[in-house]
Amino acid sequence: MNSEPHIMRAFDRDLETVQAMLMKMGSLVEDAIVCAAEALEARDNDLAGRVVRGDAVIDALEEQVNLECARIIALRSPTATDLRTVLTVMKIAAYLERCGDYAKNLAKRSTVLNQTAPIGDSAASVLRMAKLVQQLIRDALDAYIKRDATLATEVRQRDTEVDQMYNALFREFLTHMMEDPRNITACMHLHFIAKNIERVGDHATGIAEQVIYLVTGTLPAEQRPKGDTTAYDRGA
Amino acid sequence: MNSEPHIMRAFDRDLETVQAMLMKMGSLVEDAIVCAAEALEARDNDLAGRVVRGDAVIDALEEQVNLECARIIALRSPTATDLRTVLTVMKIAAYLERCGDYAKNLAKRSTVLNQTAPIGDSAASVLRMAKLVQQLIRDALDAYIKRDATLATEVRQRDTEVDQMYNALFREFLTHMMEDPRNITACMHLHFIAKNIERVGDHATGIAEQVIYLVTGTLPAEQRPKGDTTAYDRGA
Asked: Fewest beta carbons less than 10 Å away: which of A164, A176, B192, B198?
């Protein structure tokens, strides 16, 4: 134990402020994704509307993070790891902002889907997928705060689960469309929703890679695991 | 005319270097998008393969831009507009990197589609759309180099054309799928391709907004024009 009085540098105080904003953003994004999926599953247009309107708060927070980071750089002239940290915060904020956009899009599409008959139990699968990516984002941010490259590496690996769920849903939607053309429009929307959640998982991976870079100084050497195989897939 | 000998600041020299990398990236991304669409239209798997492999160069350039920008910040401690410029360069590079990913994805899907029967003249429509976003990216980067907020504003407006083309294609694909279920898989891939090109257009808009922010100091106040109405659309 260090019994010296802890003198906090001005830079560290600034960083704590901006990190608090980042964590607030992360928490809003996590909620938005799962609430949007819940709005779909429960056919709750009010909840969907709240997610859509809430995205403006996430966007405003990203703007604040960027301004604060620029202020820190200008005022404190950080170098080496400090500078890398500030730049990482900006990158993570950009990832989170895009995740918020995906949640908003999901919420919008849910209000359309609520007007049509459900497609099997796909809404429940979407909700499961949303909860999985919520946990990935949470763990990626946790890895950032703890500077934990091991946890970050684990997030990258776990993203393949999300990809597998997406691939399974892709096939399921194809089957529903082929069985009954009246399912086509709903399945197109559901497919977009699944793809957008899969992209949120990719962004969690992106955040995790930023953490690995921050902690180890190098980006992961091996290819990022890629689980969406549908680009090479002629389907059912 | 200023007849004083022009003394270039070290910062400006550094900025020129990194801007040259950015322009190189832009040019590769523009080519990649159109080549990928040409590979689809001409059913040319070799061309598609070159686009897929070429994406690594774009990724490496983004990495270089980021390292160089961090070096400039650490070495020159830029403030005010200089700092904002360096941060803008990093943001633009991130947008371009993602556009490269979309081109790669398009190229991959084209090799799948080359194994199935063409869907009407959709490949030609995709190519037209790709050429439109190519021009948008070019103009957005031009607006950056010239610090031209008017051109940047125009890019934002023109992105609605891309959105309209996407919306038209979305309806076309729905029709093809409903007419013949054997079209469904190909249409799903084509739909993704169209959506990805539409997203490249959104990224051109994102770059344009960065330019407006850099030049005027404020982000465009009015809502970004949003032309993808399909999230609210129950389709045909």
From this structure: A164
Tokens standing for B183?
Answer: 């079209």
Q: Please, which residues have CB within 8 angstroms of residue A69's CB and are 6 or more apart in sequence? A: A18, A86, A87, A89, A90
Question: Would you state the CATH architecture of domain B10-224?
Answer: Up-down Bundle (1.20)
Residue of B43, B225, B187, B92 whose CA lies nearest to A174: B187
Three-state secondary-structure class, residue B115? coil
Inter-chain CB proximity A192 and B188 less than 8 Å:
no
Residue B186 C-alpha, separation from nearest chain A C-alpha, in angstroms: 8
Q: Which residues of A touch B66 (CB under 8 A)?
A: 87
CATH number of A10-232: 1.20.58.220
Between CA B200 and CA B189 the distance in angstroms is 17
Distance (Å, whole) CA B61 – CA B64: 5
The string of pLDDT tens digits covering residues B36-72 is: 999 999 999 999 999 999 999 999 999 999 999 999 9
* In contact, A40 and A106? CB cutoff 8 Å: yes
pLDDT the model gives residue A121: 92
Is residue B94 less than 8 Å (CB to CB) from chain A?
Answer: yes
ipTM above 0.90, yes or no: no
Domain ranges of chain B: 10-224
Give the rounded distance of the alpha carbon of B166 from its chain centre: 15
Contacts of A39 in chain B (CB under 8 A): none
